[in-house]
Design goal:
Layout lengths: L11 H9 L5 H5 L5 H12 L10 E3 L10 H9 L2 E6 L15 E6 L2
Antiparallel strand pairs: 1-3, 2-3
Helix pairs in contact: 1-3
């Protein structure tokens, strides 16, 4: 009988060190256990900018992406810290005229 491999997520301290050295990715944060520490790291990750200097966002609700049924994301949306933003697609509004499909992102509320 073989033993199933143990799944070990990243610890909060390891994630903080990775964030400080700009090596923290969204996948790393998602590997953590749910709770206040994970929410804090998500917000820290969103407050930083990427390599090009643009604000970060979390793509949601497509295959292999975050989902809005995640308890931590729901908590942050309910508190008003995160808001949904749509881009691309559609024909009615000039901003949305594009051949790409629409994508939903979670961004920090202004």
């Amino acid at each position: 009988m073989t033993k199933a491999p143990e799944r070990r997520g990243i610890s909060f301290r390891e994630a903080q060190n990775a964030l400080a050295s700009q090596r923290l990715t969204l996948c790393t944060v998602y590997g953590m256990a749910r709770g206040a520490r994970r929410r804090a790291l998500l917000l820290e990750w969103l407050r930083t900018t990427d390599e090009t200097g643009t604000a970060r966002s979390i793509p949601v609700n497509c295959r292999w992406q975050a989902n809005t049924i995640d308890p931590d994301l729901q908590y942050l949306m309910k508190k008003g810290v995160l808001v949904r933003e749509r881009s691309f697609g559609g024909r009615r509004h000039p901003k949305n005229r594009s051949s790409h499909k629409r994508q939903t992102y979670l961004v920090l509320a202004h």
